[in-house]
């Protein structure tokens, strides 16, 4: 069963960091005007505005919050740092619940300073998921573990492939821990189609691990630090439609969130950027 | 059976690009003085010096050429470009033979401009290996297919993991096509230990696919373009000794080549850089 073009567009969500130049009210207003029905939010601007006020603002604009970015950073071995990280993640769960989203994106964290022990760091992520999962589920929030591109393995995220993320998630109930499928991080991997099917589970949605589906394109050259070089949809190397079809085939019917970190987009008028995203989404995803 | 420290140091080879500030005569002299017995060479400086003269220079210094970098760039679909790439790779094989090395490193090439078809590009690499393998083997040279870090998948190398490289190499006789195990490109992958064992074959060396073993460390932040940010041994996130032990356990007894692209090393005195490499090699690899 494939969605009609209109139906697919109903699933489009705009991640706030894509139009960082917009305040929260501008974001709500801009999305409502463009007919975009979902937004992905980030903790810092939500905290600044107030979670309850942000929830009201978005709801009054007729939008839903599709995800909150982000918790995570769970690899510190030091007990004090670890306890602080868990506390912070419980606060993130509370914020997600206040915003009415069921999805908290987690970026696992990189290697602790001086460490070379990737598998040890991954085990600490698993331990933390075990601690946080029940707390989140009780509040109607699912932890969405996001594999990041391997170029971030040292300093940001020791979970680098969808297979790894699923290996971790599957230790816990599907209602507690899911995964993020983000084209920017996963496009290069020749096993990703197989892993998306695995993430879909039985395909009826009940046991699916796909908690979020995010889009950005891959463009080169990478900027210094490799963080802010994501491409507008259609500008790069990623076969976005192929990904959407694989995620569809795995039974996913949730939001499709556009998350592009790119200073060139931030320098432009937000309304123009969003209009371009809607246009590119129709052409390259629908 | 593990090598003694001295024996391991006998296997150390210095890739020329690590000390780009050195001319070929300086490289030969510097390695001989430092007791380093192998060098990895690059085509451009060898062509400039003359392959026969370079071979003589290196031999007279008591060194062996452990690899020639590099052929490859075999993903163009256009027949004219493809023929030119194959011709250029045959020339690279001839240069490797003239230098007396049995190892030609191949970087497969990225996506053609405007293409998003990774699997098509990978198939063209396989076709090219089939064409070049017999030509190389007749000249005593093995093609060493190098998986590069996934951050290069779009613009440089569509072969991103050791598993992918082995999937391609295993279509051809082990004497024609092997793989490169380079710590910088592979360190993040939780399947790499399994894949190194697979590459070792029966462990007696006869069917091994490990054609080269190269070392560099992973340091952050990545520089713009992500090409010249490799770290000195011991400065980064890679467990180099773990890799060396895995490669040992897979039966590999060949050269261990240090290949670091880093302008900070190029700005220093080459002799100091090489002394530091030997020291770091003892500490972090041996």
Strand line-up of the largest beta sheet of chain A = 1-2-3-4-5-6-7-10
If interface size is counted as residues with C-beta under 8 Å from the partner's C-beta, which chains form the largest one? A-B, 34 and 34 residues
Strand residue percentage of chain A: 15-25%
Number of domains of chain A: 1
Q: Helix- and strand-based class of chain A?
A: alpha/beta
> And the CATH topology of chain A?
TIM Barrel
Shape of chain A: globular
Q: What oligomeric state best describes the polypeptide chains here?
A: homodimer
- The overall strand count of chain A is 10
Mean pLDDT of chain A: 96
> Which residues of chain A sit in consecutive blocks of at least 5 with pLDDT less than 50?
none
Helix content of chain A: 40-55%
- CATH superfamily of chain A, please? Divalent-metal-dependent TIM barrel enzymes
Report the C-alpha radius of gyration of chain A, rounded. 18 Å
Distance between the termini of chain A: 14 Å
Largest sheet of chain A: 8 strands, parallel, barrel
CATH architecture label of chain A: Alpha-Beta Barrel
Order of helices and strands of chain A: HEHEHHEHEHEHEHHEEEHEHH
Number of helices of chain A: 12
Query: What's the CATH first level of chain A?
Result: Alpha Beta
Organism (chains A, B): Streptomyces mooreae
Protein name (chains A, B): Sugar phosphate isomerase/epimerase family protein
Keywords (chains A, B): Isomerase
Domain Xylose isomerase-like TIM barrel (chains A, B): 31-276
């Amino acid at each position: 069963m494939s969605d009609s073009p209109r139906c697919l567009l109903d699933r489009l969500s705009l991640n706030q960091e894509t139009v960082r130049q917009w305040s929260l009210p501008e974001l709500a207003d801009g999305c409502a005007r463009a007919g975009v029905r979902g937004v992905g939010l980030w903790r810092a601007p939500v905290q600044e505005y107030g979670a309850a006020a942000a929830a009201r603002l978005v709801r009054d604009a007729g939008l839903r919050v599709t995800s909150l970015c982000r918790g995570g950073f769970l690899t510190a071995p030091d007990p004090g740092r670890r306890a602080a990280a868990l506390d912070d993640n419980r606060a993130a769960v509370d914020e997600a619940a206040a915003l009415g989203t069921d999805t908290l994106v987690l970026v696992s964290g990189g290697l602790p300073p001086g460490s070379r022990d990737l598998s040890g760091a991954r085990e600490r992520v698993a331990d933390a998921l075990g601690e946080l999962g029940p707390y989140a589920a009780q509040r109607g929030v699912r932890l969405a573990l996001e594999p990041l591109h391997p170029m971030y393995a040292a300093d940001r995220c020791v979970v680098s492939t969808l297979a790894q993320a699923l290996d971790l998630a599957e230790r816990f109930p599907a209602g507690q821990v899911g995964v993020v499928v983000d084209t920017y991080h996963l496009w290069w991997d020749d096993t990703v189609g197989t892993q998306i099917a695995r993430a879909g589970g039985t395909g009826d949605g009940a046991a699916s691990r796909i908690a979020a589906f995010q889009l950005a394109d891959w463009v080169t050259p990478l900027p210094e630090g490799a963080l802010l070089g994501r491409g507008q949809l259609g500008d790069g190397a990623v076969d976005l439609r192929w990904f959407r079809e694989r995620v569809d085939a795995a039974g996913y019917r949730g939001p499709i969130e556009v998350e592009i970190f790119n200073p060139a987009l931030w320098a432009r008028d937000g309304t123009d950027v969003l209009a371009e995203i809607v246009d590119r989404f129709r052409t390259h995803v629908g």
